[in-house]
Every structure is written in structure tokens, then in C-alpha cells.
Design a protein that fits this description.
It contains 27 helices and no strands. Helices cover about 70% and strands about 0% of the residues.
Length: about 600
């Protein structure tokens, strides 16, 4: 019996010659003069004969030991090796044999965990979900490894049917039962998406080091994609300590995310001028060089991207802006002329665009004047040129300063994951600088505005504040629902305003975040949009049209499609209050309360 089992174990690995253990006929050598089809047919016939011989050996052993479930399972597993082969012409027979074998196996040994799991793993889609769910009550008494395999199979089945929630749930259960489960990364992504990032990190760190480098790379990349902080770098160091060879780009991404830009730069391999490199790898090399402040490396990466890519001029121009601040000498290379021109044209377009918006307004004002229908300006001393200048300064500063201070470190699209842990604080610093420069450039307009129009004048009525109060109440209730009931990370990635709040908190704590976002920002934005823009527009068009126009522009510059309608309503409300109170104090207070609600919501999540 020992001899039979030894031969069968070898046979499971493939069509190995077990005939040496039993009597076998002498093979007839193939005639090399036959056609290739005839030779292939001989090979198929020989392999089919050997397959039948091994199956007969299994059948003989099973008749001797009819209660041996392991032997019966090995028979099915052997047939499965050839049931889906693309190189054999007799796979249909193997498939038929496998179906009969699995049916008999399930009928006789279906209650055994190893057999139930084997049958489950051979089932797919909704059938696998139904079959696996039926096994869960029985699995309560199974060993931990068997229960882990059951949950892993269910996770894969749910994943195949696009049921992410249940797939992640079963993957987590499998990972907690067996840390090296094949669905470990699915469990980590599920926990990260549902806000349990500490638990996801613990699963990754508790899992044993894999034996294969590609598995180690997959774990590090998953940690980089879904877990903030140093988790990816900690995994990298652990894998390297175990002697696994990690992809240099994966190493660089992990180190960069942890804030070690210099280490990330050292991790990247030297690239020869004619060596191939993917666009993603070039982008990573450029981001690392900029973060490390290495002007020569950044210039080399930009030149390489210019040579190999033609559809990414704008991202490269943003990176070139950062290079200008890091190493102006390296940025003066002739190859960068097109990027410098791109930046100049972009800045000029942003500065002139508000002026283009004022042309139809001026035309409307001219028509109204000819028809003797003058308009009543909201603020004295503010005209259309002040509206253009204020909006141009605001737009140009909010674009140029972050570009030059952060550049390609900031993801090119909303919702992308930043590579640097320090991005929030750097974004907050850029915002502080932007507010300061805008205030300085608008100081002349502030003097023109006059101090009397800041607090406002005239008689105020209580009913004016009913709608603004209701709007703030709705904003507060929405923020409370989001903070208490929304699943962190389940929706889109944080908005820039949320990153900004966290960055301000890193710089000076919660009070600094409130001071910057709920005090400084309302003052600057209300002066630009309600003071300059609304004040200038109402000199040439009706208040209703001017108020709607400035509200739409106010909403547009926030680049938040999800809350665009709210910004329009909010901008129109504060514009209406500016007209009623003849000042900016009330709009600033309303804006400050709204922003304070937002800051509180972000910091409480």
C-alpha cells in the first residue's frame, strides 16, 4: 500500500512514468518521417493511455481502501490537472471523469472539511456563494485553517459577482483566522475603505513574510495605496530584512510616502540614456527628485519625459515651476523653453480671463445707460476695473503659488492619493502665503473701498437673517450627519479643503486651522467676491443678474462639483446680505460660521 501511495503522489504532479513500479509494455519508437499531425496524435494517444493507467491504479487502490477520503480526493485532483488543458485532445474525457469523480466524492465524503472545500473551490459565481453559505454553520466546528479557506473561497465568489462589501467581510474573517490567506490584500483594502486603517495595518504587519518577492511587492503597493503614514515603508524594511528583493520603484514609493525623499531617490536605479522606462516610472522619478530638492535629477527626469511623451505638457510645466524654485540654473536648459512658455501663457490667460468676463457686463451697462436705466451700485468707489483686478489677483495667486511651492507633488486630479505625508502642511503653508500675497496686492483696493463700508450702515431687520440662519442650520446638520454616520474613506478621497484643514492643524493645532479657514479665508473671499466683484458688476447690470454671476464664479473657483449648488446658493445669499446691510461684516460673519462648521466636521472625523 505504501508503494502504491508513493506512486500516486508522483502521478498527481503530472504524467510521470509510474510504469516502472508496475509491469508496462515496451514503447514503440515514433517514426520521424511521419507528419507533425501524426506524431502529435501518437503523443496524445500515449498520454491518454498513461492517464487511463493512472486512473485505473487509483481505482484499484480505492477498492482496497473504500473509506480513504484522501485517496478519493487525490483521484479527483489528478483528473482536474488535465480537464482544462489546452494542449491535449482528450480533455473532454478528463472533464467527464472529473465531473463523475466530484459527484461521487461529494456524495460519500461531502461532510469532511477538505472535501467540502475542494468541491466549493471548483464552483464559481452565485452557485459558489450558495454552496459556501450553506457550509458556514457546519464550519463553526472546523479547524481554523479550514474555516479560513472557506471564508477565502466565499470572498473570491463575492468578488466575482461584484459584491465588494461581502467579499471584504469574508476576506477579513479569513485573514484573522489565517494571516497568510490568499485574500489578505482584499481584506486590507476592505478595512481601509471602511475606515478601519489601524486594523488593516495590523493585519499586514501580523502576516508572515511571503516567500515570493512579487507577493511582497504587492503587499507594499497595497499599503501605499490605501494606508497613510509609514506602513508601506515599515513593510519594505521588514521584507528587505528577510532577504526579499523588492522592486526599486516600489521601494521609492514607500519611502516617499513616509517622507524620506532622499532615501527614495537613492532607491531608484540609475537609468542609462537608451534604457526603456515606463511613463509611470518616469513620473515617479520626477516626483522623487522634486521632493528631494535635487535639481539635476529633476531636470533629467523632465527632459526624459519631454523626449518620450507628448501629451503631458501641463503636468510637466507644473513640475518645471517647482524646478525653477529649487534650481533656477538647471531650469534654464533650452529644452525647457516650451514649458516656460506654457507657464507664461497659463498665467497670462488666468489674469486676462476675468477681463473677458467683464466685456459683456460693460456692454450691458452701456445699453442700460443709453436707455436711461441706471443701476444702483452696492458699494461706492468700486467699479468694473476693481472687479477685474480683484478676481484676477485672486485666481492668479491661488494658481501660481501652489504650483511653484508644491507642483507635481500634488496629484493632478481630485481624489488621487498624495505621495508625501507632509503634503497637508505644505498645502497649508502655500495657502497662508497665497492669502498674504492677495491681501498685499489688494491693499490699494481696500483703501478705495473705505472703512465705512466694511461694517455697513443703515437699519437692519431681523427677517433678513431668517434664510441665512436656515442655510447655516442645514449646513450644520449635514456636517453632523457626515461626521457621525458617514463611513470614512468609503466615498471619494478627501477634498483639497479637507487636506488644507488637516495641514493647518499640523502647523498650529485646531485653533490655527480655525483662524486660517474660518477667519482669514472669509475676509479675503468676501472682499474679492462680494466687495470687488459684486460691487463692480452692480454698476453695469441689475443686482439680480450681478449677484447670480458672482455666485456662479464663487462656486466655480472652489472646484468642488459635489457642492457646487450649495456654493452658488451661499454666494447669492451673502451677496444679498451685502446689499441689504451696505457692508461686508455680516457676509464675513456668515461665511466664518459656515467655514467653522466645516473645520469642526473635518477635525471630528
Amino acid at each position: 500500500m505504501y508503494r502504491i501511495r508513493l506512486c500516486l503522489m508522483a502521478a498527481v504532479l503530472g504524467l510521470l512514468p509510474i510504469a516502472s513500479s508496475f509491469a508496462s509494455p515496451t514503447a514503440t519508437p515514433a517514426n520521424p518521417r511521419l507528419s507533425q499531425e501524426a506524431l502529435t496524435a501518437q503523443v496524445d494517444a500515449a498520454s491518454l493511455a498513461k492517464y487511463r493507467e493512472i486512473v485505473a491504479t487509483f481505482d484499484t487502490a480505492i477498492r482496497v481502501h473504500p473509506g480513504d477520503a484522501t485517496l478519493a480526493l487525490a483521484r479527483c485532483q489528478f483528473m482536474q490537472n488535465y480537464s482544462w488543458s489546452e494542449d491535449l485532445h482528450w480533455t473532454e474525457q478528463a472533464q467527464a471523469d472529473l465531473g463523475a469523480c466530484q459527484h461521487a466524492l461529494k456524495d460519500k465524503f461531502g461532510d469532511l472539511p477538505e472535501v467540502a472545500l475542494y468541491v466549493l473551490q471548483s464552483t464559481y459565481g452565485k452557485a459558489a456563494i450558495e454552496q459556501g453559505s450553506a457550509l458556514e454553520p457546519k464550519a463553526a466546528h472546523w479547524a481554523r485553517p479550514d474555516r479560513a479557506r472557506l471564508h477565502a473561497a466565499l470572498a473570491n465568489a463575492y468578488e466575482a459577482t461584484q459584491d465588494k462589501r461581502n467579499a471584504g467581510k469574508h476576506a477579513v474573517q479569513a485573514a484573522e483566522l489565517s494571516p497568510d490567506t490568499p485574500v489578505l490584500l482584499l481584506a486590507v483594502r476592505h478595512l481601509a475603505a471602511t475606515g478601519e486603517k489601524a486594523r488593516a495595518r495590523q493585519l499586514l504587519m501580523d502576516a508572515p513574510v511571503p516567500k515570493l518577492p512579487w507577493l511582497a511587492n504587492a503587499r507594499i503597493n497595497t499599503a501605499h495605496d490605501v494606508l497613510p503614514g509609514t506602513t508601506a515603508r515599515d513593510l519594505l524594511l521588514r521584507m528587505q530584512k528577510a532577504g526579499l528583493k523588492i522592486d526599486p520603484y516600489t521601494s521609492a514609493r514607500a519611502l516617499l510616502q513616509a517622507g524620506d525623499a532622499a532615501g527614495a531617490l537613492r532607491a531608484l536605479p540609475e537609468i542609462k540614456p537608451d534604457a526603456p522606462e515606463s511613463a509611470q516610472s518616469r513620473a515617479l522619478r520626477l516626483t522623487v527628485a522634486l521632493a528631494a530638492g535635487d535639481g539635476n535629477a529633476a531636470a533629467s527626469a523632465i527632459r526624459s519625459s519631454l523626449e518620450h511623451e507628448t501629451n503631458n505638457r501641463w503636468p510637466l510645466a507644473q513640475s518645471y515651476a517647482v524646478l525653477l524654485t529649487i534650481d533656477p540654473r538647471a531650469a534654464m536648459h533650452p529644452a525647457f523653453a516650451v514649458l516656460m512658455l506654457t507657464l507664461l501663457l497659463a498665467g497670462l490667460s488666468i489674469a486676462l480671463l476675468p477681463g473677458l468676463l467683464m466685456f459683456p457686463v460693460h456692454y450691458v451697462g452701456t445699453v442700460r445707460a443709453r436707455k436711461a436705466r441706471p443701476t444702483l451700485a452696492v458699494f461706492e468707489g468700486i467699479g468694473l476695473r476693481h472687479a477685474w483686478y480683484g478676481l484676477a489677483v485672486f485666481c492668479l495667486a491661488t494658481w501660481a503659488i501652489p504650483v511653484f511651492m508644491i507642483g507635481q507633488i500634488v496629484p493632478a486630479r481630485p481624489g488621487a492619493t498624495p505621495d508625501l505625508q507632509e503634503l497637508p502642511s505644505r498645502l497649508a503653508i502655500a495657502h497662508v502665503v497665497t492669502l498674504g500675497i492677495v491681501s498685499l496686492l489688494l491693499s490699494g483696493t481696500v483703501r478705495k473701498f473705505g472703512w465705512r463700508q466694511w461694517p455697513g450702515y443703515g437699519e437692519w431687520k431681523v427677517r433678513w437673517f431668517l434664510w441665512p440662519g436656515l442655510l447655516l442650520t442645514i449646513a450644520a446638520l449635514s456636517a453632523w450627519v457626515v461626521a457621525r454616520h458617514a463611513t470614512p474613506g468609503a466615498a471619494d478621497s478627501p477634498l483639497w479643503n479637507e487636506i488644507l484643514v488637516h495641514g493647518a492643524k499640523q502647523l498650529g493645532g485646531p485653533w490655527f486651522a480655525l483662524l486660517m479657514v474660518a477667519v482669514a479665508v472669509p475676509i479675503v473671499e468676501e472682499f474679492v467676491f462680494r466687495g470687488c466683484l459684486l460691487g463692480g458688476l452692480t454698476r453695469h447690470m441689475s443686482f439680480a443678474a450681478a449677484n447670480l454671476w458672482q455666485a456662479v464664479i464663487f462656486a466655480s473657483v472652489h472646484f468642488d462639483a459635489r457642492h457646487f449648488l450649495f456654493f452658488v446658493v451661499f454666494g447669492a445669499t451673502t451677496g444679498w446680505l451685502a446689499r441689504k446691510t451696505h457692508g461686508l461684516a455680516v457676509p464675513i460673519v456668515i461665511h466664518a460660521i459656515n467655514n467653522a462648521i466645516f473645520v469642526t466636521m473635518v477635525l471630528s472625523r
